[in-house]
Design goal:
This is Putative acetyltransferase. There is one protein chain. By secondary structure, the chain is an alpha+beta fold. It folds into two domains: 56 residues, no CATH class; 49 residues, no CATH class. Helix content is 47%, strand content 15%. The protein has a three-stranded antiparallel β-sheet, with helices on one face. It is flat and about 45 Å long.
């Protein structure tokens, strides 16, 4: 298998490297190549790896991927709020929190309500 990452997206590259090595238990080859499916950013970092590695090792995964549940909403809202607070420090004009308007559904406000609806 292979995945491509835009070279400037350092956080995505770090995430994919971690997922491939820790979750799939695979080593990967990293190379830079030009792709034809994105004319705006044709130069990509390509990570090539073999998913059969984890099957042959017969090991129990350290991480579990599951379908989201209603009980996850509180954690999702907390993570979102923490991330928005970091954005607010960098760009206060665009990410300022509208406290009074947002608190309508428990402590999570509108996010909690919205995430409950989509789940």
């Amino acid at each position: 298998m292979e995945v491509s990452v835009i070279p400037n997206n350092k956080s995505a590259l770090k995430f994919l490297e971690k997922v491939i090595s820790e979750f799939i238990w695979a080593s990967f080859n990293k190379k830079i190549k030009d792709v034809t499916y994105d004319e705006h950013c044709p130069r990509r970092i390509i990570l090539e790896f073999d998913t059969q590695n984890s099957i042959h090792k017969n090991t129990v995964p350290q991480f579990v991927v599951r379908t989201s549940q209603l009980s996850d909403i509180e954690a999702m809202v907390s993570l979102s709020k923490a991330k928005r607070k970091l954005y607010e420090k960098a760009q206060p004009q665009f990410w300022r929190y509208a406290e009074k308007k947002a608190i309508t559904h428990k402590e999570g406000g509108l996010q909690n309500c919205w995430k409950t609806k989509i789940m």
